[in-house]
Amino acid sequence: xxxxxxxxxxxxxxxxxxxxxxxxxxxxxxxxxxxxxxxxxxxxxxxxxxxxxxxxxxxxxxxxxxxxxxxxxxxxxxxxxxxxxxxxxxxxxxxxxxxxxxxxxxxxxxxxxxxxxxxxxxxxxxxxxxxxxxxxxxxxxxxxxxxxxxxxxxxxxxxxxxxxxxxxxxxxxxxxxxxxxxxxxxxxxxxxxxxxxxxxxxxxxxxxxxxxxxxxxxxxxxxxxxxxxxxxxxxxxxxxxxxxxxxxxxxxxxxxxxxxxxxxxxxxxxxxxxxxxxxxxxxxxxx
Length: 287
Ligand SMILES: [Zn+2]
Fold this sequence. Notes:
Elements: H1 6-15, E1 19-23, H2 27-40, E2 44-49, H3 50-55, H4 59-72, E3 79-86, H5 88-97, E4 101-104, H6 111-128, E5 131-136, E6 141-143, E7 146-148, H7 155-164, E8 168-171, H8 189-199, E9 204-206, H9 214-222, E10 225-230, H10 232-247, H11 259-262, H12 264-281
Parallel strand pairs: 1-2, 1-10, 2-3, 3-4, 4-5, 5-8, 8-9, 9-10
Antiparallel strand pairs: 6-7
Helix pairs in contact: 2-4, 2-12, 4-5, 5-6, 6-7, 7-8, 10-12
The structure holds zinc ion.
């Protein structure tokens, strides 16, 4: 059964660990993340961007696939199906399609408009028991064609979002999507501490989890980060394992061309990456 992310994140915030959000792209991806969460006895959040939703033939197709997979794979750990960086319209579409969590990314709007739209979604999601993630201070890098510059969130604006009643808040602290450049200065813990002071026990979300050094991840968790988004790292692991399989000529041996064989090393690589992250975030055995 799909659940809201609220309870799992409040528990994580209280007990000092983070729940991973792993973005999914297809059946293998979804299966790999769900099976790893079950094996690790960890709560998990499946992230779906608007682009990935379109790729998988629509949000309702994704919701049906995930729901049925949970049932047929006998997944008993808490699973939230979450829209990642959604527009206002996409958030409504996902609520209709049966998602249990949505992110409305209004960070590119002036703060007043971001607040007006977020407030409306707090009302709608609240009525349905769906969790809502808001964002202030855009996160750098590129996500589905939206390029952010990686600004630092204003702690006062974070407090306004908390007061609206959002479930969790993504706040830019120098993190970016995709691979980090060699001259990246690291996370701004000064900003994170200032935000934490203003928002109290509201779970904070760290986007762009790929390539942030482990000590910085752990420090961020200690300062209130309860959800960490991982996307690029699984993609890199999948691509590398698939390339090795083909470069070794395995697709030319016997029935190595069978998609169930061809995609297996990549799927296993995703599982290994997800397991590693769950251990780092501290969510193993927290289901
Ligand atoms: Zn993001």
